[in-house]
Structures are given as C-alpha cells and as structure tokens.
Amino acid sequence: MDALLTFEDFTPGRRFEFARRTLNADEIVAFAREFDPQPMHLDEEAGRASILGGLAASGWHTSAVMMRMLYEAYIGRSASEGSPGVDLMEWKRPVLAGDTLGGHCTVLDARASRSRPEIGIVRFRAEVTNQRGEIVAVCEYINMMRLAAKGTDHAHG
Amino acid sequence: MDALLTFEDFTPGRRFEFARRTLNADEIVAFAREFDPQPMHLDEEAGRASILGGLAASGWHTSAVMMRMLYEAYIGRSASEGSPGVDLMEWKRPVLAGDTLGGHCTVLDARASRSRPEIGIVRFRAEVTNQRGEIVAVCEYINMMRLAAKGTDHAHG
Questions:
Q1: How many angstroms separate the CA of residue A69 from the nearest CA in chain B?
Q2: B115: helix, coil or strand?
Q3: Which of A110, A130, B8, B132 would staple A122 via disulfide (CB 3.0–4.6 Å)?
C-alpha cells in the first residue's frame, strides 16, 4: 500500500489532475432544489432565457463537484487536516447540463504552522475546465497537512 | 405582490436575516458521500477522533446551506443576475450534526457596472452562526443586480 501523502510531498508547482466527470440535468436540478432554487438552475427554458444560456449548475454545485475532484486527486490519500477556507472562488463560465468537467490543482506554496508544529499549511490553486478546455471555475484555498512522523520512513514519489 | 428587490434597494449596511435551520446527521452524510467523502464527514467515531470533534459537515456543505439561506433571505425575491464568485469563504468553526444554523448578510458596497448599464454590482458579507451565536462561516461575495426599469414605479421598503 502506498504511504499517505504528507506535507513534505506538496512542493510548489506539484500538480494533480482531476478525473473527468459529466454533469447531467438531473444532478443540476437536484442540487438546486436543495440549495439554490433559482429558475436558471431548475429549468431549461428559464436557463435559456437567462445570461447563463441554458440549464446551468449553481456555482456552489460546481464548487462541490470540484471538492470531489480534489478528494479523488489527492485529498483521499493524504494526511489532510481540513481547510480553514478559500481565498478566492471564481465562477468564470456557466456549467451547463451535459458539460464534462475536468482540470487540475497545483501547489502554490507550503509553510510550517507556527501554532501546530506537526502541521503544515499548503496553498493550492484549482482550475476546473469544461470539454472545450475553457476554465469554468478557479479556487485558491488552504489545506492543512500533517508532517511525516519523525523517525519513520517517508515513502513518496 | 411586492415588487422585486432591485439594485437600488441594496444600500450599504442593509441587512437580511437568515431563517434558522438544523443540520442533521443524515444530511451531513448524504452531502459528504456525494461531494466530500472524508471520514470525519461520514462517521461519528471518525469525526470525534478528528480535530472537528464530531460528525461534521463538509465546509462546502455549510456553504451550500448558506446559499439556501441567502436565497430565502433576499435572492429569491430579487432581480439577481447571479454571481461571478466570492472573495473570501472562511470555515471558522466545525458545524456538527444537530447544530442549528442562522445568521445574516449585510451589503458592503454597491456600484454601477461599466460594461452593462442595466446592472449593478453589490458586495455582501454573510455570517453563518450556530445555536451558541458563534460564527461558523463567513463569506464575502458579489451579486449582480438589475436596476429598476426606468420610468416604472420602483416600490421598496
């Protein structure tokens, strides 16, 4: 079994690719009903009449899908200690029903925590793209990561 | 029927209260299974063993619940044209199963759009609180709003 990715693995510039995923109309509507019931997120007609140009995912839905992509790309096999938040979340283009999302995240910088010596603070930039390679969302966020335990072997690639 | 809230209604300092809502374990786990399947969002034991101290909502779940609160507070009865993103999203304290969320949002500033004269740009700060009055999440975001149509009566309070 591969060792968990720890703070030491997140060197500036390291990049993790996202698995591609198509967002269908049912998913868009289900999320919108629960969290963002504006007409353009619920109805194709209303979406076409809006600036978004079609049945479009709530920006927060795109963000949640990005979170799942981050989980699959590295968080699920890392010593993550969660995030205190994001510095930037831009929804740059509509995500329409049937769009296939992908993208990647990159380590911006990494530093030790002053208050918690067993933890490091890693800043990432994530870019979510659609099937035309256009960036639909950008997020810059912090991820707390445990350091490799001292005295143990730290296997990574 | 009340007129839609338009750009002119969003004067700096104006505040909209959120309806209170309790987040239960089933909702937390359902969101996590789909978008953020980290152990502390799926399992009470794992949550208690984590820094979060119990079965805790994904930060993105808290954000999505905040979106619904914003919808109920003003977006659903406004001339909203959506949002290009957020400048800041902080998850300041864990949201645990059974917590009752509330809070409010406040207009920070409002200005005309240079590129689209029928639209104004309103910046808001939203604060989500728990049943102890502690702030669990803060978001500063932009909301595009249509101006009242010229020559029509613009009724607002």
A1: 8
A2: coil
A3: A110
